[in-house]
């Protein structure tokens, strides 16, 4: 996601997985080994812990080639750590995603603020391979490790007034240096309609491959909604509120005529400044056609029958 300036790097295929910002994994591991303290600080792909007991999700794609972790974790959008796609991997390196609590409230019978481990513990993490499409023309195939958002929300017992779910990212400029400047309104906020939030494809993700979420990808907890454009995937979540009215979303606040609430991947509805018909898969040169709902139409299209997807972009 970007607003007014389109950088040259956004267009060049050679920049899609910029080699210059790849982490030198081996060298970093050696550095970490030299100081145990550093190893515990580092939660990037180099220092990430393995996640235990992952269940493979039977619905995962098998035929599509997975995007390598280094690519997933070195070309990011995370304005809390800088506005350039090469910024987060550097600027989030020393972010500490523990201890971490998440406040769940609003229209629920049992609101609570819970430690991340308590939030996750009753659930078995699942590995799910999802195609991801950002609003800019790049796409990846990512094996997320996560928990269905619905399973988590149900424990807090949403009331009949819960029509939407609002999410909030940590707001702490001391830990997130990009928040020192108003590149967006802080904290970053996102929202889903309740049926979208409860859809079995919607994940609260805690890892990639079998490792803890890299900081730059939204440690320790982020949203993954595979039929929507990338910006719906709010990172480093500290608050989840069930609400009656459609909540504000960061990119809609920043540029309302470019980014709507729904943000469904739709090759027929162009972004104001570029076509959405094609995408470049990370690691490939030729662009491919973008699929309606990112290829998840069989599962999700029925939620939007009767909705004008051009007006509700
Ligand atoms: N808190 C927060 N979440 C965010 C963003 C952000 O700037 N801040 N950027 C969004 C955008 S525009 C995209 S495309 C995805 C990118 O996720 P990735 O870096 O894991 O590919 O994160 C989304 N979530
Ligand atoms: Mo984005």
Question: Topology, pairings included?
Answer:
Layout: H1 8-11, H2 25-34, H3 36-41, E1 55-56, H4 69-72, H5 87-91, E2 101-106, E3 112-115, H6 116-120, E4 126-133, E5 138-148, H7 149-155, E6 164-169, E7 189-193, H8 194-197, E8 203-208, E9 211-212, E10 222-224, E11 237-243, H9 250-254, E12 278-281, E13 288-289, H10 297-300
Parallel strand pairs: 1-4, 2-11, 5-12
Antiparallel strand pairs: 2-3, 4-5, 5-8, 6-7, 6-11, 8-9, 8-10, 12-13
How many strand segments? 13
Low-confidence stretches: 2-45
- The percentage of residues in β strands lies in 15-25%
CATH architecture group name: Alpha-Beta Complex
Q: Per the principal axes of the C-alpha atoms, what is the gross shape?
A: globular
Helices and strands, in N-to-C order? HHHEHHEEHEEHEEHEEEEHEEH
Total domains, how many?
A: 1
* Mean pLDDT across residues: 88
CATH topology: Sulfite Oxidase, Chain A, domain 2
Head-to-tail CA distance between termini: 15 Å
Present as ligands are: the ligand Nc1nc2c(c(=O)[nH]1)N[C@H]1C(S)=C(S)[C@@H](COP(=O)(O)O)O[C@H]1N2, molybdenum atom
- CATH class category: Alpha Beta
Describe this structure as you would to a colleague.
The chain has one domain (about 1-305): Sulfite Oxidase, Chain A, domain 2 (Alpha-Beta Complex), CATH 3.90.420. A hairpin with a 6-residue loop joins strand 12 and strand 13. The protein has ten helices and 13 strands. The longest helix has 10 residues, at about 25-35. It is about 15% helix and about 20% strand. Strands 1, 4, 5, 8, 9, 10, 12 and 13 form an eight-stranded mixed β-sheet that branches. Strands 3-2-11-6-7 form a five-stranded mixed β-sheet. The model is unreliable at about 1-45 (pLDDT under 50). It has helices at about 10, 25-35, 35-40, 70, 85-90, 115-120, 150-155, 195, 250-255, 295-300, and strands at about 55, 100-105, 110-115, 125-135, 140-150, 165-170, 190-195, 205-210, 210, 220-225, 235-245, 280, 290. The chain is globular and about 45 Å long. By secondary structure, it is of the alpha+beta class. Bound molecules: ligand MTE and molybdenum atom (MO).
């Amino acid at each position: 996601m970007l607003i007014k300036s389109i950088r040259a790097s956004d267009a060049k295929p050679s920049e899609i997985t910029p080699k210059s910002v790849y982490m030198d994994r081996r060298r970093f591991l050696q550095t970490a080994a030299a100081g145990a303290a550093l190893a515990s600080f580092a939660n990037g792909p180099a220092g990430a812990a393995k996640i235990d007991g992952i269940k493979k999700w039977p619905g995962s794609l098998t035929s599509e080639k997975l995007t390598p972790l280094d690519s997933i974790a070195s070309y990011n959008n995370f304005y809390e750590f800088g506005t350039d796609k090469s910024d987060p991997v550097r600027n989030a390196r020393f972010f500490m995603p523990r201890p971490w609590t998440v406040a769940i409230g609003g229209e629920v019978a049992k609101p609570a603020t819970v430690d991340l481990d308590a939030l996750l513990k009753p659930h078995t993490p699942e590995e799910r391979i999802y195609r991801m499409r950002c609003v800019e023309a790049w796409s990846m195939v990512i094996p997320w490790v996560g928990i269905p958002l619905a399973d988590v929300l149900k424990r807090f017992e949403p009331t009949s007034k819960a029509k939407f779910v609002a999410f909030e990212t940590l707001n702490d400029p001391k830990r997130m240096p990009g928040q020192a400047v108003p590149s967006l309104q802080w904290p970053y906020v996102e929202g889903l309609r309740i049926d979208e939030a409860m859809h079995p494809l919607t994940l609260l993700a805690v890892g990639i491959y079998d490792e803890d979420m890299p900081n730059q990808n939204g440690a320790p907890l982020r949203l993954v909604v595979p039929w929507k454009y990338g910006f719906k995937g709010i990172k480093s979540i500290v608050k989840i509120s069930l609400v009656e009215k459609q909540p504000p979303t960061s990119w809609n606040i920043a540029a309302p005529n470019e980014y709507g609430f729904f943000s469904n991947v739709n090759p027929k509805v162009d972004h104001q400044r570029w076509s959405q018909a094609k995408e470049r898969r990370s690691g490939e040169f030729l662009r491919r056609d973008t699929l309606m709902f990112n290829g998840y139409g069989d599962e999700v299209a029925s939620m939007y029958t009767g909705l004008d997807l051009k007006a509700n972009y």
